[in-house]
Amino acid sequence: MIRNAGKKACIFVISLIFIQGGFSDSPAGEIEPRLTLKASNDKTISPYTGYTREHWIEIAGRIIAGFLPYFDNDTGMPDFRGTDAESGHFQYTRSFTSESRNAFGRTMILASLYSAATGKNSVPGYHGPVSGPYLKGITRGTNPDDPAYWGPTKPYGAFGNQIAQAIMYCPEFYWDPLTSEQKKRLADWFATLVHGVGYECN
């Protein structure tokens, strides 16, 4: 399980690199990133790229600033539908609604980790708090009387654990802003997830 987690982490990091422009070979045979970043390279800790913690924080911030504008102002849910590229968007999925929740949760992990690492609730290039769309999605999605209610997580579904992670990483951005009533509704919604049936690997 740990080995698989390590593989997934490596794939994620490599994906970030190529999303941001990839690498090019230098005359000396070293790998040189084609992306221009503000942080200074340090080949002593990263012999191939020179990337440091500051580089990855900046890259994460750029990715977050890139996807947040696609969140609906009314529901707080992402809408990445459009012309299919190599990622395919939703062309291989059966339900846009379920995949929108999947995108909500997965992007929330990056957003909350960025805030936990920087202590900030903002990123350059995006006007507004990073947590804003997610809080809108949470308050509407966990309210049974709201048309945007998510409903309970289905058996073997994992949606919702990302919200718990964000609250654990940055309670000041993802928990404290909620009212007492909103917190109670979220806790009630979590109860259906906690007592549900899931895969052992999750």
Task: Describe it.
The structure is a single chain. The chain is mainly α and 202 residues long. It folds into 2 domains: 1-51, no CATH class; 60-194, no CATH class. Helices cover 47% and strands 3% of the residues. It has a two-stranded antiparallel sheet with strand order 1-2. Helix 2 (53-67) packs antiparallel against helix 3 (96-118) and helix 3 packs parallel to helix 5. The relative contact order is 0.10.
What labels would you give this structure?
disordered N terminus; 2 domains; two-stranded antiparallel ribbon; mainly alpha; 202 residues
How many DSSP-defined strands? 2
Tell me the span between the first and last alpha carbons: 10 Å
Q: What is the number of helices?
A: 7
Sheet with the most strands?
2 strands, antiparallel
Shape: elongated
User: Roughly what percent helix?
Assistant: 40-55%
Question: C-alpha Rg, in Å?
Answer: 19 Å
Strand content: under 5%
Average pLDDT number: 80
Q: Looking across the biggest beta sheet, what order are the strands in?
A: 1-2
